[in-house]
Amino acid sequence: MGVHLTRGALGLILSYHTLLKRIAADAEEENVYVVAEDDAVLEPDFSQRLQQCLEALQGTRWDFLHVGYYDDDCSMAPLDGHLNRCLCRPIQVYGLFGAALTVRGARLLLEAKLRSELRAEFGGFWEVS
């Protein structure tokens, strides 16, 4: 079954692919990148809150954080332990308004490994229909 892509959707896919390739080429593995839609509105304390999340994640393996959503368009579940103070587990989310990702995360997305790892972790959440 084929998928019909609008010009805008194709442009978005190509832009993300180019951006992921640039991030994946970074030799500094510890760098974290934030990618957002061009019309995303960041809260005034976004940088501080992101830093709190990144600090909470120290010592864990993470590659991708979904950092934007509409309250009425998603459902979340709490995490156990100290991560619960600033992070939650997505159950169902529509759209990608923003993300923080590691260099390794960009490489995994390009290799399509992260998608299968996330599918194993979250069930059918990442299925494309």
Task: Kindly describe this structure.
It contains four helices and five strands. The protein is α+β, with helices and mostly antiparallel strands and 129 residues long. The protein has a three-stranded antiparallel β-sheet with strand order 1-5-2. It has a two-stranded antiparallel sheet with strand order 3-4. Helix 1 crosses helix 3. The longest helix is centred in the N-terminal third of the chain and has 18 residues.
Task: Spell out the blueprint of helices and strands.
Elements: H1 7-24, E1 32-36, H2 46-56, E2 64-66, E3 74-78, E4 88-93, E5 98-102, H3 103-111, H4 113-122
Antiparallel strand pairs: 1-5, 2-5, 3-4
Helix pairs in contact: 1-3
In order across it, which strands form the biggest sheet? 1-5-2
Helix percentage? 25-40%
SSE ordering: HEHEEEEHH
Catalogue the unreliable spans: 124-129
Tell me the number of helical segments per DSSP (H or I, 4 or more residues long). Answer: 4
SS class: alpha+beta
Largest sheet properties: 3 strands, antiparallel
Coarse shape: globular
Beta-strand content bin: 15-25%
The strand count comes to 5
| Rg | 15 Å
Count of all domains: 1
Question: Could you tell me the mean pLDDT?
Answer: 78
Alpha-carbon distance between the termini? 10 Å
- Oligomer status: single chain
